């Protein structure tokens, strides 16, 4: 059996198993149906067909999950677990993800639409790395002894300790379902918190499987709960006074609603929100390297990426040539069902997302931009939510396609001549998540990196991330940073202890 036959066989097996009955919630270590008895369909974006029914959780189910998480937070089996043992549990979870990698990759492909080869490389391998990385933190994350001088002659010992922030509501998006869950679950568990994970309604399946694997790895019941459902479930999680922290990845509009909802008990909030990342190309840049990376930066995952390099600012002297090379890169993409051999460009996640992307293309045309390539559904692909890689050239700085996040495979192309005007345009955005700079003048690259307002700047590369380095945005792209020590700090409280030794 070759690899592609094995992938389709795995998909058939998963489909048959999932069709046997609704997938339940994970609460207090058990699989349960929603108290209302309601379910909803999760759909394969490549076919538009239902995969299975999933429990439709709501506020009542959230309350049960929060109560379970609060009990687990105080249970000695978790509260008193040593740092070494917590590390072992996280490493066992990584081992189990690795064991089931092929199944998880196909499951994510079916539910999200991303080609199976990419779900394997990005979602599954990325999740394994995330859990292994944060498995190293419990034995290294602590407080310190501080020199203090409260009054003359006093002998005072002052030290700090790190304690778990408590019960965490983790709300993750549909564009990278499993890896985004790992980004939040791994540091939360490493810090000793308990969690309620709320996956996007479009992509609930790998979140449920991840919680099952966590139980198998030795995470105590109630520590890792999953509520599937729609916006009202997420809102109930944000509003619940038994939740100490909310971590959210998604749109800026929803992020603002979360901030408002969190005021009831002033729970901690961290947000990774929208982006409209500029790709800045200087006239001395390596155009082949830039074109390949810019194409990947906007067309990878069908443009459904918060860091997507969706605004191109190319120097006027190389603008036409660069656009031609980016179009050549787009032409090499193979569009189709992610389970099929050679496919590296799948569908958008839903009809709703397809409609949004299509409407922005119409808006761009009406505002005066030209469609260089793409702009519609690929010929012969009426099933599924496919949208062509699209370049809109002659865009203007005030156009909506330049200012608003499209979240699809649409590149808005502008040109520039004056570097000061370029910086002004690049920074003239509500967002500040990331930016790319392409130049062989490293001094100019560093100067521009300092001038651009973004949480991550890539010079002569794009979309590189690593668990060791902080990730997050300026302005309306969010609050806080994921990855690294900064992520551990998000899931902990610091306590200062004073001891009179006089």
Automatic annotation (TrEMBL):
Alphabetical list of SUPFAM superfamilies matching this protein: ALDH-like
Organism: Aurantiacibacter rhizosphaerae
Keyword annotations of the record: Oxidoreductase
GO molecular function: aldehyde dehydrogenase [NAD(P)+] activity
Annotated family: Belongs to the aldehyde dehydrogenase family.
Gene3D superfamilies from the UniProt entry: Aldehyde Dehydrogenase, Chain A, domain 1, Aldehyde Dehydrogenase, Chain A, domain 2
Name of the featured protein: Aldehyde dehydrogenase family protein
Keyword Amino-acid biosynthesis appears in the UniProt entry: no
Catalytic machinery residues: 272
Transmembrane segments: none
Domain Aldehyde dehydrogenase: 33-497
Cross-referenced Pfam families: Aldedh
Keyword Repeat belongs to the record: no
């Amino acid at each position: 059996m070759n690899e592609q036959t094995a992938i389709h066989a795995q998909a058939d097996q998963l489909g048959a198993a999932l069709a046997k009955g609704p997938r339940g919630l994970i609460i207090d270590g058990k699989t349960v149906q929603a108290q209302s008895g309601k379910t909803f369909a999760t759909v394969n974006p490549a076919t538009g067909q239902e995969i299975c029914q999933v429990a439709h959780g709501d506020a009542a189910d959230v309350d049960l999950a929060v109560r379970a998480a609060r009990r687990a937070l105080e249970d000695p089996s978790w509260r008193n677990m040593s740092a070494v043992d917590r590390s072992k549990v996280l490493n066992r979870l990584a081992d189990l993800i690795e064991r089931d990698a092929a199944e998880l990759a196909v499951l994510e492909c079916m539910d999200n639409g991303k080609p199976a080869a990419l779900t394997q490389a990005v979602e599954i391998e990325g999740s394994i790395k995330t859990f292994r990385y944060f498995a190293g933190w419990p034995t290294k994350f602590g407080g310190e002894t501080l020199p203090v001088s409260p009054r003359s002659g006093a002998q005072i010992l002052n030290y700090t300790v790190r304690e778990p922030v408590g019960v965490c509501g983790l709300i993750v998006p549909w564009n990278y379902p499993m890896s985004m869950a790992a980004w939040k679950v791994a540091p939360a568990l490493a810090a000793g918190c308990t969690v309620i994970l709320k996956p996007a309604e479009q992509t609930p399946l790998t979140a449920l499987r991840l919680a099952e694997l966590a139980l198998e790895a030795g995470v105590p019941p109630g520590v890792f709960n999953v509520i599937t459902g729609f916006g009202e479930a997420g809102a109930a999680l944000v509003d619940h006074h038994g939740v100490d922290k909310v971590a959210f990845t998604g749109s800026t509009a929803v992020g603002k609603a979360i901030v408002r909802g969190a005021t009831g008990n002033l729970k901690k909030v961290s947000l990774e929100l929208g982006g409209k990342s500029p790709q800045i190309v200087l006239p001395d840049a390596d155009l082949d390297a830039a074109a390949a990376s810019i194409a990947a930066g906007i067309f990878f995952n069908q443009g459904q990426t918060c860091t997507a390099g969706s605004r191109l600012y190319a120097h006027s002297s190389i603008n036409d040539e660069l656009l031609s090379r980016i179009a050549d890169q787009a032409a090499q993409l193979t569009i189709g069902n992610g389970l099929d051999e050679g496919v590296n460009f799948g569908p958008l996640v839903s009809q709703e997302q397809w409609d949004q992307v299509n409407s922005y293309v119409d808006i761009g045309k009406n505002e005066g931009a030209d469609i260089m390539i793409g702009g519609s559904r690929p010929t012969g692909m009426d099933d599924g939510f496919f949208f062509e890689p699209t370049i809109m050239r002659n865009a203007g700085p005030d156009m909506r396609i330049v200012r608003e996040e499209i979240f699809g495979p649409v590149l808005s192309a502008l040109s520039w001549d004056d570097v000061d005007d370029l910086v002004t345009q690049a920074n003239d955005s509500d967002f500040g998540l990331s930016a790319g700079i392409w130049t062989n003048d490293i001094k100019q690259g560093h100067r521009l990196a300092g001038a651009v307002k973004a949480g991550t700047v890539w010079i002569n590369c794009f979309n590189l991330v690593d668990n060791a380095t902080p990730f997050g945005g300026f302005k309306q792209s969010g609050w806080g940073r994921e990855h690294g020590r900064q992520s551990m700090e998000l899931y902990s409280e610091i306590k200062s202890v004073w001891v009179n030794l006089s």
